[in-house]
Amino acid sequence: MSATRYKRLTDIDLDADINTIPESRSIQSTLIGFILLFGFVACMIFLTSVQAHPARVSLQDNGKNSPILRTRSQEKPRKRNITKWMDNYFTADESQFLNCSEMIKNNKDVIELYVNNGRMKLDNERLFELPMDCPSIKNRIYGDMPSFRPLKRPIAFVRTIYKIYELQEALLSISYHPDNVFCFVMDSKSTDRLKESVRIMSSCFTNVVVLGKEYSLNSGGHGQDPAHFDCLKTILDRKWDHAIILQNFDLIIKTPYQLSDISESLNYTSIMGFDHGFSYRYNTKAKWTPAGMKLFKIETGVPNEILNRNLIVRKSLNEVIVSKVFVKSMFEKLNMDIIIKLFDDNDYYGVDEMLVQTLYENYLGLEGQMESNCTRNHNDILTRMTHWDFSGPNGFDKECHSKWKRHGICIMGVEYMNELIKSQQVIANKVMATFDFGTIACMREMIKRNTAGETPNTQWLTSFPQFREMQQKANGTYDRNKFDC
């Protein structure tokens, strides 16, 4: 797509470090602009001449196979093929080039046409006044969706949010099912409009919870663990089998029915990556034995080998899939406030990627926990799809399909739709309404059509050691001393 004009966006994110495109690119863009303007004027002169003197140009004869002379300006644009749901947030003119079916096929011409005519973006300066009565909110979230079928295993979605209500409404719409549970925690620094709107939305649903307490969330990961675990504790008595931990820019790319099937395959297994924690992200001088940190509520009956063994700090990503069996056991047996505070330390950066992993991968006798103390590293190939790119600063980046990145991660514009629809993973990060709302809209369209990629099967899940351990326990063949991580 060399002809695609990727413009610098100054409103991508209020807290992002946006860097300017080199001056040479600006000069090049100016020259291209003059050339396009000249071509447009020439084209208009030509068309005027044709209309004034039609006999001078032979457009076609009466033969069916005769050639037709058409200029680019005469070609009808490929109109959007999405439902009227988009009209809640954009004018028809703004969304006219969003052709999700062709973008999913990676039709570069269609993607180029959409990008060159301006991506669909939402920011605080460009929002409609949405009607906020419950019938209107419900209609936007699921009014055009197919009738709901019961879920075998409901899912809980635990999400920290801080930006743009319309984005949160759209993300809720993608995963909404009356059997599922949704818990939101808001950043204390969010706008009053966001806070008020999210609370109004929550009041319209019995299965949407918004915590009264707000947290100070930042890019260092601070506040994420306390917020997520407050949500988990709040919804613990509700009906769900697995919880998916999410942040503001995470997009669910599986249907509610696919997620229910995945939960059924996982049984009580949780899914996360296996890696060693970086020593510069936590206090290595702290007492890391369960006894030293007073981790257990009741130490009586806990084996000494567990109480006095140093925990190995582990990490993966903040986004994990945790079973309710494991979550319930943590709250019942552990002083969670102590270990949450230990990790959520303002002296360190990236602190939100170690808590769940450390508790899950160090055997503590918890239900639903992995018993084998695996020390090998394993990537999480189920939970989050991410296009990493650590070269260079935030902003324009030619290595990203969308040509834009934030904090070392390529932002997933519509250029990623073909990959998203093929992925076996559950979440995509990052999607940003201030960059390209089209990705979110197209994924909702796929969810609506129940065509959101492949559902991982049991054989594929055996790549996870915790899943293999569960299978062996079910078959009566598990031997902790012989288990191959």
UniProtKB/TrEMBL annotation:
Q: What InterPro entries would the database entry show?
A: Glyco_trans_14
Q: How does it sit in the membrane?
A: Single-pass type II membrane protein
What would be one Gene Ontology cellular-component term for the protein? membrane
Q: Where does it live in the cell?
A: Membrane
Broad class of the protein's primary localization: membrane
Keyword Transmembrane helix in record: yes
- Molecular function (Gene Ontology), one example: glycosyltransferase activity
Q: Where are the transmembrane segments?
A: 31-50
Q: What is this protein called?
A: Nucleotid_trans domain-containing protein
Q: Which organism is it from?
A: Caenorhabditis elegans
